[in-house]
What we know:
The chain contains eight helices and seven strands, in the order H-H-H-E-E-H-E-E-H-E-H-H-H-E-E. By secondary structure, it is an alpha/beta fold.
Amino acid sequence: xxxxxxxxxxxxxxxxxxxxxxxxxxxxxxxxxxxxxxxxxxxxxxxxxxxxxxxxxxxxxxxxxxxxxxxxxxxxxxxxxxxxxxxxxxxxxxxxxxxxxxxxxxxxxxxxxxxxxxxxxxxxxxxxxxxxxxxxxxxxxxxxxxxxxxxxxxxxxxxxxxxxxxxxxxxxxxxxxxxxxxxxxxxxxxxxxxxxxxxxxxxxxxxxx
Length: 209
Ligand SMILES: C[S@@+](CC[C@H](N)C(=O)[O-])C[C@H]1O[C@@H](n2cnc3c(N)ncnc32)[C@H](O)[C@@H]1O
């Protein structure tokens, strides 16, 4: 099952299940990043159903996602079907780029970061939040065991077991953010951990002036 199929299949149930799985914390975690982004034009990469729209305030938001089914539920005024690896915008277009719970699904983090760097204006800021594994071998093992049990059960509860088994597999896809984002054209300002055992990570990066 490809990631495109996963999100097309679960679009209608996505927000509810995401909220259950994050114990209702998913918006709070998005907001720790959004609250540190500059005002002005903002690109939401992998915007999905637009769960973050209500916390963007008066920023001018462009929602980008490869899944038409997810975007159809997104009430942003500007919606664009594409992938992070290929952003159909001019250089230096956005003051901020945001991406939540998407990086595990990317085909190429390096290509996406190069594109984000290109479309940000000099001095612009990118904020990313995603799920991964906690830091530390024991916490990571505990979390790996817990998620392999909890995610299929939660998926079964909403008739999407296969999709959530797939999502569990993506949690091990990347190294920690400090390593994942160490070699991009942007300067890494800060990373921090959120959620139980710190299995959620967030990062802020800036385009050099
Ligand atoms: C877990 S959802 C997150 C949606 C939204 N950002 C949120 O916070 O609820 C992941 C989204 O990433 C999108 N996606 C998958 N591959 C992508 C890619 N290569 N570039 C951009 N978005 C992608 C999916 O279609 C899906 O809408």
